[in-house]
Write a structure and sequence with these properties.
alpha+beta; Arc Repressor Mutant, subunit A; two-stranded antiparallel sheet; two-stranded antiparallel ribbon; 5 helices; 4 strands
Length: about 150
Amino acid sequence: MTTLYDIPPEVLIKRLGEELKKKKEIQPPAWASVVKTGVHREMPPEDPDWWFIRTGAVLRRIYRDGPVGVQRMRSVYGGNRDRGSRPNRFRKGSGAILRKIMQQLETAGFVEKSKSGRSVTPAGRSFVDQIAHTLRLKTGSSASTSAKTAE
């Protein structure tokens, strides 16, 4: 069976975002269009679907590293803050965004909360693995056709 380890992250995250957009439980809050993703950012994201892409990335990260909490995820999505003439310093990402995304993933049944953090449920694992499998079939079939044309 194909898992998330067999697919490049950027391809898998984009596809996860597209599939999560179809779920009614995963919806960006009203403030998502104006919020920055952390203090290290100067402007909000320009992509209108950034909420779904971030949700896919969080789901993949919980699957891979879980169980994880909001603080650990804030470190993952942080970055260097430009402090002008002073040296840059690392700052964590927004906790409210990650907390809300994790709550929506819990409502959708993909993530469950425990004492040590949030981890992927069997339904969430199946969801990610099915998407990875379909992506593997698409890339595998195109690779085999290109190999045939090279002969």
